[in-house]
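P.,

For your records, the input lines for the assembly:
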Amino acid sequence: MQQIINFLIKSRNTLWFLFLLLLALALTVQSHNYHSNKFISSTNYISGGLFNARNSVTSYFGLKSYNKRLLEENTQLKELLRAFEDDTLRTQFVQQKQLDSVGFKFKYVAAQVINSTYHKKKNYLTLNKGRNDTIVPDMGVITDLGVVGIVEKVSGKYAKVISILNENSRINAQLKNTNHFGSLIWNGENSSIVQLTDIPRLAPLKKGDTIITGGRSTIFPKGVLIGEVKDFLLDQNQNYFTVNVKLFNDMTNVGFVQVIENTEAQKIKELETSLDE
Amino acid sequence: MNNNFIGNSVRFIILIVFQILVFNHVSLSFLSNANPYPCILFVLLLPLKLDKLALLSISFIFGLVLDMSQNTGGAHAAACLVLAYARPLILVSSFGLSYENQSLKFADIELKGMIVYVLVGTLLHHIILFSLEVFSWSHIFFIIKQIVFSALFTSICVLLFFGLTQKNKS
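Structure tokens returned:
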């Protein structure tokens, strides 16, 4: 007994080192699994506050270009509204308030990106809105130009978003012209190019085709822009295409985003789990 | 002792704030986006006579705060911890006798020993950090590139800091 205690006292430094190392390794391994990073994240008060302080200065630098983008988006939306009004059939439809039963499934919350990375293999963004602004995990995040990522974790005031430039990210996407769909992943190489896999060989692909979200999940509505086809090649089995997609979004400079809330996500999930049982 | 404590606490805060606000946003695109981590200066400069348990614990907490800001789980904590644990060994190999008979002071140090100390420490820290941060064999080439370029970048930053703060002997 004496010997054991002596040993413990003598090598307490090494033991303490091993214990802390194990703790750090456990946290690391856990952080590499999607949806299980519970303890250490950038949604805490300290780093959130620091990011906010930095952002309150740097956000002024991009104002000119954001204004221009906002103007362009506004023009586009106005044109859309114009077309909508001209379409008398649809106007009647709206007037009869029948749209309630079909549309308005999605609500948007505007937020600002206060921290982001793009040159790692697993990139994340931090938003300045959190649970207090009705943001919960698994909501989609977009800009006017396209998809940005999916909310992974929220605290009261901040949200951590898993970027599409993250090897764990998987987003349902499809071709705009046809309905062939696949999943969007990132191979970790170029921050402006992502990969769309599992597109069947029959799909008529062309360089420059637009890729949009597929709407087969509760996260994004159908038709949110992603990017355009840069090039594509058949995989080893010669059955599916892997498509390199050039993003419309400049992921190195994401300033203002919208978080999408699917008001029926809860119902859909309940239904799916009840079917599984 | 008291003076030492305050100095190190101030360094803790300043280095973390600088790392998060400035150096995390510095990346050299022509060197495969190498990132500098001058924050390891804190671990390198902790008092030489500090108790080993305290040294390990403080370094661990320092790393954990960095992890919180970068969503890296525990990579920084592990890297800082290993650096702190290996520090006496690196000190002996870079300064030899003057460290062993406890006459070493960071304020007046020969340049050659300093360079070896910083280079070896940085390399060790970066090896752990980047392997844990990327954590995949398929990116081994990327990891090595990041380690080499970032270690160079960090060492230069740290050595520049030493050069600027060291008292002029003449």
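Two observations worth noting. Chain A has a mean pLDDT of 85. The longest helix of chain A spans residues 63-86.

Regards
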